[in-house]
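Model: You mentioned two targets. I'll fold them one after the other.
Researcher: Yes, keep them separate.
Model: Target one:
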Amino acid sequence: MSNKGEVRRGLMLVISSPSGAGKTTLARKLMGEFEDVALSVSVTTREARPGETDGQDYHFRSHDQFTRMIAERGFLEWAKVFDHYYGTPRADTEEKLANGKDVLFDVDWQGADALHDQVPNDCVSVFVLPPSIEALEQRLSARPGSTPEIVARRMADAKAEIRHWRRYDYCIINDDLEEAYGQLRRILLVERTKRLRQHNLEDHVRALLGEG
């Protein structure tokens, strides 16, 4: 769906949703179809869990290494969650964008805000909404290990997250998975064609005007 010789800058596709709304499933479907869409790998100070691989699941670093990266402005955004730090590495993301790769981010509204503030021209944000609050509660209740207390806490967190939906460029109501995925797919394809992401347009227009 691209022109021969097209040179494109990658984009940062930020997807947020309350827990249980389906963003992880949508993100996996997108990466399964598009080989040039890669999930952002965060840096963290927490210990690796069984089965996790450094550089694939997270970049595992010490507290001193993390604070050094903060001082060197090595993160696009970072936050402390409970006792551990998490951050989005700047250099890795910028390299992918320059090479025409799209980077997918699974973050909350605060992370989405921070990324948009850092690189507004590269960032495209999508918020995924459940079809109803009842459907969301059913999905959360069906998760293994769920208890009424856990579901109640997750529902409270979900409502707090939903309140920030207006901050996003796009919103998708995930009632039917295939329909929701179709919307996400179209957002990606349209955003790829924006003028700011087409590196070869300046030369092409100069040639059309005989100025090249």
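Model: Target two:
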Amino acid sequence: MTSTLPSATDLILVLGGALTIYFLLILLAQGLRRWRDMRFRWVYHLFAASAGLLISLQWLLTDGVDFTWRDPLIRHLTAAVTILAAFPLTTLLVRVIWGGKHQADLKSAGPQILIDTIRILILLLAVVLALQFVYDLEVPGLLAGSGIMAIILGLAMQDLLGNLIAGVSLHFEKTYKPGDWLLVNNTHAKVIEISWRSTLLLTNDDVLIDVPNTEITKHSVTNFQLPTPRHAVKANLSLHYDIPPLRAKAILKQAALCVPGVCPEPAPVVLLKDFLDSGVSYEIKVWIEDHGQMNRILSDVRTNAWYASRREGFVMPYPQLVLHRPHSRDTSGHARELAARVLRGHELLEFIPGEQLDHLVRESAVQMFANAEHIVRQGEAGASMFLLVKGEVEVLIDRDGHRTCVARLGSGDCFGEMSLLTGAPRTATVVAVGEVEAVEIDKTVFGALVSDNPEMLTNLSELLAKRQLANEQLTSEAPAQQVEAVRRGVLGKLREFFSL
């Protein structure tokens, strides 16, 4: 008996069976997702629907009825199920290979290029199986008979295949991975993703570059993350020939060491590179761990070098062919005026006449410091005090390997007076917060004032003796002979320090 249309009962059975199998396969996929974090794509719905309809047509229609459309439809559905099954099969295979990894971690466990390659191979195998066993097409003969088409496709896909082969090579050689900073064709960039066709890079300017894998393999690639993220970067500058190289290198090294992001170990290295027409060329080499901060760190190294060079009186020369006559405006007048007002109210120096304080400040240097520079360091020998004119500083004390901020000073504050008066070592580290301008009164300038007025030592010894007793938490009722003994000891130190 031949029929062209199924009965209503047959149609309901087929559709009902197809929906039942479809929902069972969807429930299976959801269970696998909860159990092993397997996430099937939308293609899985087509696979489930095709499989449900195929099984229904095979088993639910009665064998006694011959539908002329049934066999061709079953053949097409079988081919569709074979090809669509490649997609969930790929998901299962990836999960078997990379076991316990979550879906979000698959790209780090196995690069996308390898996963895509597995998908393509399985899909091609499914297509070959469908052609060979469902449609009874001899695939080898089909390929041999279409040699011209194969050549055309090969020529058209040579770039695509080249990128694929290069991507597989990059994966197995492990030249780089997502997150690494590279130097490719004179461009600094961070690896974002490696696909089967190209590598996605992000430059320092936040610009995305999609570079074909074959192009990367043609260039020399520098990976700043290998063998470790710590690597050296360099900044160059020139100084005048009159500056002693050993002194210049020491100053530039200290300036670079204060920059945030510069590794303390290995310590910065300063090399004399060349004798140029306009000056001596120096190279400052520092080690960093975050290559994304390279531009900022090198900028700060040059900034600190400028401030340190200016404080030391170093000259960064202009080209010798240019006649340069600087006429810079002296901006230190306001700084010295503020410093003189601060000194007039200082408990240790308020007894000095105003005109002498003005002379003292006038003969002192106005210094500038860059952000994060160490103005003084704890434990170092000192013979000067600083009066802050602009900016702020943090006072840090190191105890038992820990650094603690004990104070924050601003304009009008001063520090280091005990080192100026007695030569005592620095009791704390003082670090600039932003740009800082300060007047530095050193032993030479203050000593000249003391030499002209030796009676000042008597007043200083009394004030310093009172401060010492207060620091030692002695009461105001201390015996007079004890106070006098402390005063004489302080006076002796002052005379010895100022060579009087």
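Researcher: Noted. Anything on target two?
Model: Residues 8-36 form the longest helix (29 residues).
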